Amino acid sequence: MLSARGARWAKVGYAHGVQNRYDPVKNPQGAVKLENAENSLMHSELAQFIDGLSFDQSCCTYSEGYTGSLRLREAMANHLNAHFAPASAIDAEEITFAAGVTNLNEACALVACNPDADEAIMLGKPVYGAFSLDLCLRTGVDIEYVSVGDREQFTPACVSAFEAGYDAAAARGKKIRALVICNPHNPLGHCYPRETLVGLLQLCARKGIHLISDEIYALSVYGRADRAPEAFTCVFRPSIHPSIHSFIH
Ligand SMILES: Cc1ncc(COP(=O)(O)O)c(C=O)c1O
């Protein structure tokens, strides 16, 4: 479920009128849009400067909206399908671009949680310190830190620690709306094995919360002194129940 503000924003269409944009060669009958603050007088000089004549000048415009051009989103969908082995193919329409993962984390907090409503996001400890700013500063969302104690952070045993954290928060009147994991983990440098991801996805399904997986270091694996390193598994790889909503970035 989205927060009230997330549900409101989901109804807003951000796409600009790409459907019938004027082009002197390809679409001479198209519409010339005068409403955007784009200086098309400079496009050919910009294209020349960036990449000679092969550069698509529509990339200098607001083009298809704020979430990335279809061409870019298709390229990312192809990349994810080729290298992240998702359980079902990812479509370009499911992809959104933003200026960095900090912004994506904040956007996820905004759409998952209502402000000033005792709503919170759950995180395991230790964790990337900037989450506390990125998820909370401007969103009005709280963080509930969960310690996995002396259990191994990446084994399925962490699932019961998160479940206990969820229940303890609920007993204090806090409503957890999402669990954020970092995979490969910052600062620990390890990856979550598939069975742990499945356990976490099942927990999120039981509790009706989002799983947000920050995979900024995807496909990078550090060696371990004590054993072979765990390979990276994207959260979209395990075949998951359709009612579970998860985000990766
Ligand atoms: C886990 C994690 N998420 C997000 C970020 C920030 O990403 P960006 O620089 O794309 O905003 C970092 C940067 O250190 C990070 O370690």
UniProtKB/TrEMBL annotation:
Listed InterPro entries: Aminotransferase_I/II_large, Ethylene_sulfur-biosynth, PyrdxlP-dep_Trfase, PyrdxlP-dep_Trfase_major
Gene Ontology molecular function: any one: transaminase activity
S-adenosyl-L-methionine recorded as keyword: no
GO terms under biological process: amino acid metabolic process
Domain of life: Eukaryota
Keywords: Pyridoxal phosphate
Protein name (record): Aminotransferase class I/classII large domain-containing protein
Domain Aminotransferase class I/classII large: 65-227
Pfam families in alphabetical order: Aminotran_1_2
Gene3D superfamilies assigned to the protein according to its UniProt record, in alphabetical order: Type I PLP-dependent aspartate aminotransferase-like (Major domain)
Transmembrane segments: none
Gene source species: Xylaria grammica
